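Format is chain and fold; as here:
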Amino acid sequence: MPTADESGKPHERPVLEPIRVLRPRNTDALAALFRELTDLTEDPENAEGYESVPLPTPEARTRELPPVPRIPPVPPAPPARRPGGPGGTGSRRGAVAAGAVLAAALVGFGCALLLPDGDRESAARTLPATPPAATAAPPADPDGSGTLREGAAGPEVTDLQQRLRRIPNVYDDGATDGRYDTVLTEAVARFQLWYGIRGDESGVYGDDTRRDLESRTG
């Protein structure tokens, strides 16, 4: 090991120089490729394994393309005429028929003007009379043909009152005078509600209520 001098001065050591590390850049490969291409261009004999491609001449670059032939437009087809359309056979027949009807009407009107008053009255008598309009049939009762409702009277109402008196707590001690009044309407509605009768109106003695009441009263 180096030791200090006897005079007390420190021992001098050699100064170390910094080391520079050179790393290849990506541009070095690009520069090498460019130099290779330059050498091939200057000396074509050394270009082994390469194929030369001729560059296009200025005349080839400016050469015009042949014109595209124009296709003449196809004319649209004429619309087909319908048989009954304008100018068709149907319209002609219709016009002829209308003309014949109009001519017959004019002839009849002229003959009526030329006839005397007596002949006009006889001609009017020979014309068929207009049949009377049929009378509208009355609407059918939705509750049945033998339906009884408030305001009715007669033996059928008496039979209804007698049958309802045989149903407990429906028409107890009710009148049997043959009149369909408010008390009888409430009794019929009570019977329909208690026994689940839904075919007739509430308080109306229809076919469904009649069928159920007769089955319970014998």
